[in-house]
Every structure is written in structure tokens, then in C-alpha cells.
Amino acid sequence: MIYLKLFLTFFKIGAFTFGGGYAMLPLIEAEMQKNSWMSIEQLVNFIAVSESTPGPFAVNISTYVGSVLGGFPGALCATLGVVMPSFIIILIIAKCFMTFSKNRYVIGCMNGLRPAVIGMIGSAVITVGQSVFFPSGFSVSVFSSYSFISSAVIFVLMLLLELKSLHPIVIILSSAALGIIAGYLPGFI
């Protein structure tokens, strides 16, 4: 039963997400909480692992969630579920591309979806940011904790590296190394 539920859940996420993996984060979060499959903290860890492994984010996170909840068959069901809608849609669009590309309704739909995707990504940034910087809720004492200070320092350093236009691999490896170092600070975890 878990395999069918994983497939259908990730099929729904894949079918109703426009704008890539990050835009699906609010849907994934809602489904994880609705099904009581994992906490926000666990989801943030899954996001970190999914983002730092090769491949598309949506495939990585669905595979990871599926494997934790249902082993290899669960990973297969969740992954197939999340990619199947895109695969079907791309086949249909490829078949009819010339007709769709000039259609005013399709153009209007895409123009309307772009701001919604930006909003969904922004919502995911806020949710993940709250979990990283304020895991126990917002209070003044959070600002003096090693965890907050370490996370903020790593965030600022990675932002500076990004502004220097370093390759994303350098930024990912640097942030992982800094996270490991910060993990040795007293009170970080």
C-alpha cells in the first residue's frame, strides 16, 4: 500500500508543479505533513542531501523520501511518480509544439505561471530558512546560539562566494566542509 501511495503522491506533486524542483517544495512539505511521513527538520535534511547529490532535485528528493519510507521499491515508485507527469506532458508538447508555441492561451498561461512559481520558491526559502535559522522557534536567545551564528556565517560566506561567480560545486563542497567544522562547535547540534 505504501508503494501505491508514494507513487500517487509524487505523481500529484510532479503533475501540479511548474518551475522545477524548488517550486515543488511547498507541495512536498504539505504531503509529508499530511501523511505524517516526516518532520520539517527531516525534510530539510532530505533537501540538503538531495541538493548536494548529482541529478535533478525533484528526482533526488523523491528517490530519497521513497527509499526511507519503502526501501528500494519505495524509491522506484516515488521516482516514477514524480517524473511520469513531466514525461507524458513533454511527449504531448513535443508532438504539438508548433501549434502550442504561438497559441495566445498557452502564452498567457505561461505568463501567469511565472509569478506563481517565483512565489512558491520564495515560500520554500522562507520555510527552509525558518527551519535552519530558527529550529526551536523565533526568540532573541536564538541569535546568540552557536547553531544560529554558524549557520549565518556559512550562509554569508556562501553568498559571497556566489557573488564571485564560483562554480556551484565549489560552493557546495565549501558549505559542506564549513558545516562539518561548525558541527564540532559546542552546542551546534
Low-confidence stretches: none
Shape: globular
H/E topology pattern? HHHHHHHH
Task: Tell me the helix content.
Answer: over 70%
- Radius of gyration (Å): 19 Å
Kindly name the structural category.
mainly alpha
- What composes the largest sheet? none
Task: Tell how many strands the DSSP assignment holds.
Answer: 0
As a percent range, the share of strand residues is under 5%
How many helices in DSSP terms? 8
SSE blueprint and pairings:
Blueprint: H1 2-15, H2 25-34, H3 40-51, H4 57-95, H5 97-101, H6 104-133, H7 146-163, H8 168-183
Helix pairs in contact: 1-4, 3-4, 7-8
Give a short overview.
Helix content is 76%, strand content 0%. With 189 residues, it is mostly helical. Helix 1 (2-15) crosses helix 4 (57-95), helix 3 (40-51) packs across helix 4 (57-95) and helix 7 (146-163) runs antiparallel to helix 8 (168-183).
Can you offer a commentary on this structure?
- By secondary structure, the protein is mostly helical.
- The protein contains 8 helices and no strands.
- The longest helix is centred in the middle third of the chain and has 39 residues, at 57-95.
- The model has no long low-confidence stretch (mean pLDDT 82).
List keywords for this structure.
8 helices, 76% helix
